[in-house]
Design brief:
The complex is a heterodimer of chains A (536) and B (399). By secondary structure, chain A is of the alpha/beta class. Chain A contains 17 helices and 22 strands. Chain A has a 6-stranded mixed beta sheet with strand order 6-9-10-3-11-12, with helices on both faces. Chain A has a 6-stranded mixed beta sheet with strand order 18-19-20-15-21-22, sandwiched between helices. In chain A, helix 13 packs parallel to helix 14. The radius of gyration of chain A is 25 Å and the shape is globular. The two termini of chain A are 24 Å apart. Chain B has a single domain, classed as ABC transporter involved in vitamin B12 uptake, BtuC, CATH 1.10.3470. The longest helix of chain B has 30 residues. The chains are: A alpha/beta (536), B mainly alpha (399). Chains A and B meet through helix 1, helix 2, helix 10, helix 11 and helix 12 of A and helix 1, helix 10 and helix 11 of B.
């Protein structure tokens, strides 16, 4: 797609990183990494967690210094001590967590730090005009006078992009930009990215989503364990080839698991409401659902639409204002966490670092949790049996393929994927009729994702019920026998597996018309277009 | 990290000798040791600056504390410090800070002296009853602080500290009015009846040392704490709560109940220290005598220094006790004011705080702060355009 903007004059690449090395204690985060990005190109940097892509981008953006290597922009060597210098050199970055002032308007956010002035005062009119002009040129469709807090996440992200354009960034680095977006918003973002490239800007897309890369990028640089394992042109490659370069082994990307055979109810929820305090809109509103043994029920939705609160209320970590919850036939409405677990509930929480595990405790201690009051981990006299705790940990570690030197290491030193396998292993080992699973593969490498999915299906097939909350639509589609969609605290759609397709779920996730209510110019594509494949 | 097959690595766990060597290595290289050494060095510089010879001074501290003259005093001084250090370590293990040690201490002393003075039973039984009364008084007062947190949402840090003041005032009033010794110019209660006292060991310098059966009681308390902490499910839950309060809650540990029990245990032990104090020389409660030496705060420092580990807390408490007594010895020998040892105490803590990264994310004071606050972590922080760096990639232990 970018034939019309060939390489920059003099055959200099827009961005060139040569032989970048960055060491952390015990880890070589970047090992002689070379990255070459041509002007006007959309270049994806891919890799699993810990592959070194964030480190590489931090080095490019001046957040970290490399131990060795050179950075050249259009042939000129640079050494950035801080992002300020990188910005001055024409780079710009949109981080995963936005850095916006929610109470200020779009214009104020965009010009902040570089306001146009007139006789020493901020020239608001000029600022607004400049922002409006940028919105117009790039087709960003952001209302310049709206308060950022009132804008949906997808639009806020475009405000971040506006900030970069306002500072005349020639190279835009986008870090996992679609992580927080609905499928429709993600599609629109990809459109914006294409537009930026057409206007001659260079986009560096850091992501682990193969579908996006195939849809929008021109070329891909793949990292694994700090080294470049592939440089590919998307026109000449396949998602499978990229995945191979990321993981070093063949991954079945399109695997959907056979449907389950549902039996008796293991979870019954009736009219559950979680209040957000007086006057505020409830976080969870009148939710009713059932999960049967032998099925996985997926809860889809854009993050922040009440899924976390729903699961926390079910697990007993958050009081429900109304409604009844039955776990394996026992009424546990208002019961303590302990009683719910005793009734037959296990739970893999979203926040594995602080809720699912005690980071600074050993793997063995983390895995003992919940088993520490029953034999064989305690003697009849009430004393812990250290050997039994170690054996228990070893069993979970082996069964779930957790890579750890020993059960004595602190769990915080393991990679995200291994932490998650350990937590999932612990909860599955409880053998509870109902398993609540929240974002089981967030921040987990592709190789582990496959493993974790297989475990969940195996658990289902062993006759347990699973309630799966995930922001990754692909995950819901791959695993769920039934899909519920949450929007603003309510279940707005329930689709059996056969009817659950990305388009219908995406529509429900967006509450039907969410963008149209805010966007000043809804335009023809306010209806979500069919989504691109969300593979990973 | 090399991808060793997990199982094999476990089978080849280090043998006991190697394990002990590793533990020793860990202890020598620990931040605690480093801080103590750094503090001693800084102390030496201060000493040299005042014109004193650091070596002579330190030798005087050492002989003052551990010489035949001093060891009895050191043990006597260490009883309350170690006792209070253990008392405060118990909740600290779960990330809860009991700042009300003083109040629990004096209530324990008051309860013990009241029972001692008015019990109709034989003296042996009276002593036991006095000890139990002291524990009960301290324990209940601490439990009240726990209830204020769990039921009324007053942070424990605040509730425990603020409950301390009325307790001290109440005890002061009781000693100065209802229980005041007739005809005495000193605000003190009557002397306990003959025989109502803890048996004392025949230490070198006689009765005045205060080395009584109290040391056995505190030792017993330390042992119980050690066993519970290391070997029981309850101790496991406490440790996990300290390492991750939200994790423990998620797994079903009832935080309110845990807080109540730990605070009761903590207060009981503080009360026991008070009871032991009045059941020893001068066998009465003198207003202010329990709190003036500041043992509660020294104990809290010791518990913090040892991160509330049972053995470490005892060692740290004893270290501070020895430092205080050694300071007196140094003052006599070298004319260096004994306040220098307080300086050393403070410097140890400061170095430890710096080493442990008190204000760093995940540093230990932060962790304690979080532990004391049952609410979810605050999420609303103002955005920081452009400048906020993402956390540097952590040394990922493996794939």
């Amino acid at each position: 797609m970018n034939d019309q903007h060939a390489a920059a004059p003099g055959d200099f690449a827009e961005v060139e990183m040569r032989g970048i090395v960055r060491r952390f204690p015990g880890v070589l985060a970047n090992d002689r990494v070379d990255l070459r990005v041509e002007t006007g190109e959309i270049h994806a940097v891919m890799g699993e967690n810990g592959a070194g892509k964030s480190t590489l981008m931090s080095i490019l953006y001046g957040l970290q210094r490399p131990d060795a290597g050179r950075i050249l922009l259009r042939g000129a060597e640079h050494s950035f001590g801080s992002p300020v210098q990188a910005i001055a050199a024409g780079l710009g970055m949109v981080h995963q967590g936005f850095k916006l002032f929610p109470s200020l308007t779009v214009t104020e956010n965009v010009v902040y730090g570089d306001e146009p002035t007139r006789r020493g005062l901020v020239d608001r009119a000029a600022a607004r005009a400049r922002v409006a002009e940028l919105v117009e040129t790039h087709g960003l469709r952001v209302p310049p006078d709206a308060r950022v807090a009132d804008l949906p996440v997808g639009v806020q992200q475009r405000v971040e992009i506006l900030k970069l354009l306002y500072r005349d960034a020639r190279v835009l680095i986008l870090d996992e930009p679609t992580a927080v977006l609905t499928p429709a918003e993600a599609d629109r973002l990809l459109e914006v990215i294409r537009g930026l490239a057409r206007s001659g800007r260079t986009v560096l897309l850091v992501t682990h989503k193969l579908g996006e890369v195939m849809a929008v990028a021109d070329r891909v640089t793949v990292l694994r364990d700090g080294r470049v394992t592939a440089r590919l042109a998307t026109a000449e490659t396949t998602p499978a080839e990229i995945a191979l370069a990321m993981t070093g082994r063949r991954i079945d990307l399109d695997r959907t698991h056979p449907a389950g055979v549902p039996a008796a109810d293991v979870l019954e929820v009736r009219g559950l409401t979680v209040s957000a305090g007086r006057g505020a809109k409830p976080l969870v509103e009148d939710v009713s659902l059932t999960v049967r043994a032998g099925e996985i029920v997926g809860v889809a939705g854009v993050a922040g639409n009440g899924q976390s609160e729903l699961v926390e209320a079910l697990a007993g970590l958050r009081p429900a204002t109304e409604g009844r919850v039955l776990v394996a036939g026992r009424d546990v409405s208002g019961a303590s966490v302990q009683r719910r677990r005793a009734a037959g509930l296990a739970y893999v929480p979203e926040d594995r670092a602080t809720v699912g595990a005690a980071r600074d405790a050993s793997l063995a201690d983390n895995l003992a949790m919940g088993f520490h009051r029953t034999a064989p981990l305690v003697t009849r006299g009430g004393f812990l049996r250290r050997s039994a705790i170690r054996e228990h940990a070893t069993r979970v570690i082996e069964r779930f393929g957790v890579k750890a030197a020993s059960p004595a290491v602190t769990i915080g030193t393991l990679s995200g994927g291994n932490q998650q396998k350990a937590i999932l292993g612990r909860e599955i080992t409880h053998d509870a009729p109902l398993l609540l699973v929240e974002q089981p593969t967030r921040g987990v490498d592709i190789g582990s994702i496959e493993n974790i999915h297989a475990r969940l299906v195996e658990y289902r097939d062993a006759g347990h019920g699973v309630l799966l909350v995930s922001a990754e639509l692909s995950e819901i589609l791959a695993l769920a026998d039934r899909v519920l969609v949450m929007y603003e605290g309510r279940v707005v759609a329930e689709l059996p597996r056969a009817e659950a397709d990305p388009h219908r779920i995406g529509l429900a996730m967006a509450g039907g018309t969410i963008e149209a209510t805010v966007d000043p110019d809804p335009g023809p594509d306010s209806d979500p277009a069919p989504t691109t494949a969300h593979l990973a | 990290m090399t991808a060793i097959k997990a199982g094999t690595a476990i089978e080849h766990a280090p043998g006991p000798a190697r394990y002990a060597a590793l533990r020793l290595r860990g202890a020598v290289l620990s931040p605690v040791t480093g801080s103590i050494v750094a503090a001693l060095l800084l102390g030496a510089i201060i000493l040299a600056g005042t014109g004193a010879d650091p070596f002579t001074a330190y030798r005087a501290v050492f002989t003052g504390a551990f010489g035949s003259e001093g060891i009895g005093d050191t043990l006597g001084e260490s009883i309350p410090i170690v006792g209070l250090a253990l008392a405060l370590a118990i909740p600290l293990r779960a990330g809860l800070v009991n700042l009300g040690g003083d109040g629990q201490l004096v209530l324990g002393g008051l309860a013990a002296v009241s029972v001692g003075l008015y019990s109709p039973f034989p003296s042996a039984i009276t002593v036991v009853l006095a000890l139990l009364a002291g524990m009960l008084a301290g324990g209940l007062w601490a439990a009240l602080a726990a209830v204020l947190e769990t039921r009324c949402g007053v942070p424990l840090l605040v509730s425990s500290l603020l409950l301390s003041y009325p307790a001290m005032s109440f005890v002061s009033y009781m000693v100065r009015f209802p229980l005041l010794q007739k005809g005495s110019g000193i605000p003190q209660t009557d002397r306990l009846p003959e025989g109502v006292k803890l048996p004392e060991f025949a230490a070198g310098s006689g009765a005045g040392t205060g080395v009584s059966v109290g040391i056995v009681l505190i030792g017993l308390a330390a042992l119980v704490y050690f066993v519970v902490d290391h070997r029981t499910a309850a101790g496991y839950e406490v440790r996990m709560t300290g390492l991750g309060a939200r994790f423990a809650g998620y797994a079903g540990v009832d935080r309110a109940r845990l807080t109540l029990r730990l605070m009761f245990a903590s207060g009981s032990l503080a009360g026991l220290v008070g009871a032991i104090a009045v059941l020893g020389f001068p066998y009465r409660l003198v207003d202010g005598s329990l709190t003036t030496p500041g043992h509660t705060w020294t104990g809290l420092l010791a518990a913090l220094l040892a991160a509330a580990s049972p053995l470490g807390t005892v060692a740290a408490g004893f270290f501070f006790g020895a430092l205080t007594i050694g300071g007196f010895g140094m003052e006599q020998e070298t004319a260096v004011p004994q306040q220098l040892t307080s300086v050393l105490q403070a410097v140890v803590i400061i170095f430890l705080a710096v080493r442990g990264g008190v204000f760093r994310k995940g540093g230990w004071l932060r962790r304690l702060g979080r532990g004391a606050d049952p609410g979810p972590p605050a999420t609303a922080s103002p955005p920081d355009p452009e400048t906020t760096a993402p956390a540097p990639a952590r040394g990922d232990g493996g794939k």
